[in-house]
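If you are new to this repository, start here. Below is one unmodified record pulled from the training split, so you can see the exact layout before writing a loader.
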Amino acid sequence: MKRILVVFIVALTCVGAMWLVSGAQVQAEQTAAVEVAEADVTAPKYVFLFIGDGMGFPQKTAAEMVAGERLVIDQFPAQGVTTTYAADRFITGSAASATAMASGQKTNIGMLGQTPDGQHVVSIAEMARDMGMKVGIISSVSIDHATPAAFYAHVPKRGQYYDIDVALAQSNFDFFGGGGIKDPTNKRENATEFVGDVNDLLAENGYSVIDNRDDFMALTPESGKVVCWNNWLQDSGAMPYHMDVREGEDITIAEFTAKAIEMLDNENGFFIMVEGGKIDWACHANDGTAAIEDTLAFDAAVQHAVDFYNAHPDETLIVVSGDHECGGLTLGFAGTKYASNFELLGAQTVSFQYFTAEILADFKEQHADGATFEDIKPLITEYFGLKFEGAEDDLLVLRDSEIAQLEEAFELSMSGETIDTQDYQTYVVYSDSYDPLALTLTHVLNQKAGLGWTSYKHTGVPVGTSAIGIGHELFNGYYDNTDVALKIMDIMGIDPQVHMADTTVGEEVAAQ
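And here is the target side for that same chain:
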């Protein structure tokens, strides 16, 4: 393969960066120190980019504490710190962040594959495809959600799911796996142009659609282009939270990753992007156990890439990052002082989503004529391990104040009334998206374990980026999320800059 010049760029963000607010625009004045060094390396044949959505340093550390060992991603030789802000807001969103990591372009909240003024930019996945590499896109949420879509779609609003689904069908990528597609028939009626049912477009463009585990496991490299999703899409077209997975029935994100490697390995190499999307969703809901379990499932997917790297160490690059932190997770809580009781999280056996949609929904149906708090107590103990009586030193025994919180949340949940989330205090306690009882249960258990949450949304703290393989040294240090894309381009032998959609960068590199 061609030899390339690797440019090491270390971007230093000025202490006390000035943020100028004008309408919806937020800009950072930054200074950058650029150090150039030469290193003669071979461009990788195989490139992996793993993105833990909502995965900040606290999420990774909590997962390590529960697992009792370091994550695979934290053992990589290159470890960096990455800023995440969007073009128009300090606290980013997944669309803006994914666009930055896919193309090197800062953009506005909600925009995918575009500059703030609407010009289309080329993603590294599209460049890889044009270089003759096979391309795989995997996500534990719907495959047309913001992060995966940033690698193949170019729309001003991430909610244009029909247009995104059309872009998926026309991408000529080789493997899509994970969750489903949200709007193949334009039910939202927000298409730029309706060009037919996307299911038909997929077939016309040579894709086979697989929606069950048996057919998925039977796929081989000879199966051709595929779009695969889990049979059970738990919520909003997404795979189930890992702690809710039905063994032997559901496909895990690690299994999707292993199958993509198996199917895409070829003489021209591949580019595979894997998103752990439900880490973010669990953190939005302040469900620490679900977030940790999905972080560990994400790390297990990375292990498959590491196994492949071990067999191809001179041909492979693996990069792992987060797009932003979510929930403002803190590893410490006022009520537990210096204590950490991570082992208590194991008392929770289902996610907040499963409890809400399955357990609580069934309870409400069975108690349509009314229920008391006494009726729900056995379920609270069964699924969250919280006890209403017991030994004084049993940390899972509820205090009177905690019981009062749960009782109030239960009454709100059973009332069926819409919560007034315009009221500040009500929103802070119950959010605007989740069942009051499920949310309070995770809050109480997390606090007993020594975890705290400050938000139901994203936060603006930097995230970690790690790398192993060819050119991994570039990922040490402190840099922006746009640099993740630019560094990967550089290592792949592509000019490390934003490439507009009217360029043929991939074809040009392949021709070299």
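Two things worth knowing about this chain: The radius of gyration is 23 Å. Residues 289 and 346 are 7 Å apart (CA to CA).
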